[in-house]
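User: Structure with adenosine monophosphate, tokens only please.
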Amino acid sequence: MVFRKLGIKEEIIKVIEEENFEKPSEIQEKAIPFVLEGKDVIAQAATGSGKTLVFGAGIIHDCKHEERIQALILVPTRELAEQDANSLRKFSKYNFLRTTVIYGGVGIGQQIRNLTKADIVVGTPGRLLDHIKQGTIDLRFVKILVLDEADRMFDMGFIRDVEKIIKNCPVKRQTLMFSATMPREIILLARKYMNNQI
Ligand code: AMP
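Assistant:
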């Protein structure tokens, strides 16, 4: 199992075997070792590249089921929030981590209840910021922050919200950024909020 050589946890290997993934995708092979070392990583990766397992492996490595938010994934759309959350639930099914989604256009009450039990949160910037303003999300224990489809968040005008959210996360954390394209704004964002990124 080539995935084992990357250092991936046995519980995730079990899921990978069940899913019949034959070998790591290019980005998985290149990025997972750095992610597991705790390095900040910025990667050019489109949907379908297998990027979710890259950050998923890092998150599942570092997080425990303790009902406090240890990983936060920022995404541009509710569809991607659901997709990432479903993949993370699948990859973490033997680690019993609880993943919840946060996005606008739906009631906030259930989200508030879910947030009190979550280990991993996947959300869109606007609604996440609402929770921060209302004090209904506790980001003090975040160890891993992921920006997924960063270029789309920029295109959709979310960058100021993203920056506000980043500033509410602990300074000592691992930051992972994925973007299909690498415009100047994304490089600048990485320089501003990441440490010695690879
Ligand atoms: P992603 O780019 O993370 O959204 O993944 C795209 C799809 O490819 C998802 O359905 C994954 O479950 C699947 N996938 C991820 N990694 C691999 C792999 N190494 N081999 C085969 N399929 C994979």
